[in-house]
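Marked as duplicate of an earlier ticket. Keeping the data here for the record.
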Amino acid sequence: MEKLKKQIGAINQWLTKAEKDRSQLQQQLTGLERSISDLTREARNLKQQAANQQTQLAELDTRQQQLTLVLNSQREQLKKLLRQAWMEGDASALKVLFNETDPNNIARTLTYYEYLGNYTVDQVQAFQASLAELNQTRTQMQNTRARLATTEADVEQRQQELAQTRKQREQTLASLNADIGQRRSERDGLAADQKRLEALLKEVQQVITSIPAPNPNQPFATLRKKMPWPAAGTVVSSFGETYADGKLRRNGLLMHTDTSAEVRAIHYGRVVFANFLRGFGLLTIIDHGDGYMTLYGHASSLYTTTGDWVDAGEAIAQAGQTGGTDKTALYFEIRHNGKPDNPSRWLAGQPAKPGKS
C-alpha cells in the first residue's frame, strides 16, 4: 500500500504540473467544487448519524414501554403482598403455631412463612431494579434526543453552507465561461482536455503495471452486455459521436442525471485516481485488472480515495456539474490497454430512468 501511495503521488505531482497554466478563476472554481464535495460528504454522514440516532431512540422508547408494563405488574403484585401481610399481621403466624400440635405441621408452617418473606423481598428488589433501568432508559433517551438535535442542527448548517458554496460556484463558473470565451474557442479547449486525459491515463498505466491486478470472481472480459449501468439517467451523447464542430469524437458516453444521483462502480477493482481534472471535473478512475479501466467524470462529490478497493454496484461518487457542465451529468468511459471501448458493448440493457435506482 505504501508503494502504491508513492506511485500514485507521482501521478498527482504530474497533474499539478500539468495544470499550472490554469487561470485564477479556474483555480477558484476547482477549490469551490472540492468544497462542495466535502460538504456533500459531511452532510451525507451527518444524515446517516441522525438516522442511526432515530433508530436508537425508537429502540429506547420501545424498551421504556416494556419496562413500564413490567413495573405496573410488579407494583400490583407488591400491593397484594403488602395488603395480605397487613391483614394477617405477625399474630396470624403465631396463632397457627400455638394452635398446632403436630411438629411436622409446625415445621411446614415455618417454612411457608419463610418462603413468603423471601418472595416478598425478591419482588421488592425486582421492582427496584426495573425502576432503576427505567430511569436509566429515560436518561439515555434524553441524551439521545440532545445528540439528535445537535446532529440535525449540524446537517442544517452544512446544507446552508452547501447552498452558499454552490451559489458562489455558479457565479464563478459564469465568470469562467466568459473568460474562456475570450481566451480560446471551445473546440481548442475540448481538444486540450482530451489530450490531458490521454496523458493522465498514460501516467496511470505506467504506475499500475507494478500494482497486483484485482482478483474478482469473474474477470472483466467475461461480462460483455452483463454489467450494470453506472447511474440512472438519460444518455445525451454516445460513444463515437462527433463534437466541437465535428473535430473530435466522443471516447465514452455522457448522461444527464438527477442532482442527487449516485455513481456506482460497474465492476470490482481498485481506485487509482480520485481527483480533479480540467474538462472532466471530479474524476474517478478504477483499475479492474487485465488492462481494463473505467472512468467516471463530472461528479459533485467523491466517496472514495486513491487505493480503495470497490465492489460492483458500490457508490463511488455523486453526479454533478464539475468540469464546467451546465447540467448534472456523468461522463463514463471504458478503456482496454489505454484504448477507449464502446460502453454499449459491456453494459446490460438501458439505464434506469432518473429518479429510479
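See parent ticket for discussion. The first strand starts at residue 234 and ends at 237.
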